[in-house]
Amino acid sequence: MTRMTSLVDLPMIALNPASPQPRYRQLYDGLRAAILSGQLAPGTRLPSTRALAAALGVARNTVVNAFEQLIAEGYLEGRVGSGTAVAATLPDDLLRAPRPKQAISPAPDTGRAISRRGMLLASTRVSTGPAVTPVRPFRTGTPDFSAFPFDIWAHIATRHWRQPADDLLTYGDPAGYLP
Q: What's the pTM value of the predicted model, to 2 decimals?
């Protein structure tokens, strides 16, 4: 369980009533920037929505909307009876992909100049799909192949494709199969 520190004063938050941006969004942006810059450390307990609304001179719903968005995105954690605190692990940290440990070979020379991003994309190894593994019991999406009626399926498919109806070789009705 993460231990929360004492309440923090939020002098870095300033709302501009003349801004075309809604106040809850201004508060959201200010809190998010303070969290990402380290002004609000992980575990820092924030004031209650009522206290913060009174300090900023806005409606409580403005603060509630900003807090709910930050909680939904993973920047804040709310616990009943304990208040709201900065999350221990920020979502921005989770989104950063680690650098590949292997050296990336240069892209093949095509005789044309390409951008740095293009060079990176061309030199990135691409997975060719999942490795084929033996079928195990209860594997999702894999039926029991021994129970499938391959002979009947092949017979029906052959009968239909010897002289296919024209509608089988064109796009169907956008409303779906009419019969």
A: 0.50
